[in-house]
Amino acid sequence: MSSKQSGAPLESESIYRIPPYYYIHVLDQNTNVTKVEVGPKTFIRQDNEKVILGPEKMITIPPRHYCIVENPVLRDKDSQVVVDTNGQIKLAHADQDIRLAEDGLPLYPGEERY
Hints:
By secondary structure, the protein is mainly β. The chain has strands at 15-18, 22-28, 33-38, 41-44, 49-57, 59-70, 96-105, 112-113. β2 (22-28) and β3 form a beta hairpin. It contains no helices and 8 strands.
């Protein structure tokens, strides 16, 4: 068996090709802020960044179905994700959000799907 785990990001990798309907979580070690990068794109990791999750397949919710997300991100009146002054994504802790039919739903850091 190989010593390399399949699917786990390597520390030495600096180029990530994120396919359509996939996403990764990237930790900026200088600010300790995790951001989401959504495909399709080629992401080049900087020296101060660490990929902590992914590439993960986005959640696809078919018509007449739903998904419950715990600790959902806060959104403003224009449905944009709310971030604080440091760039950290704000969550509604201990809250639940029901998401209806949707193509390509990435989970932000701290969100959990049920």
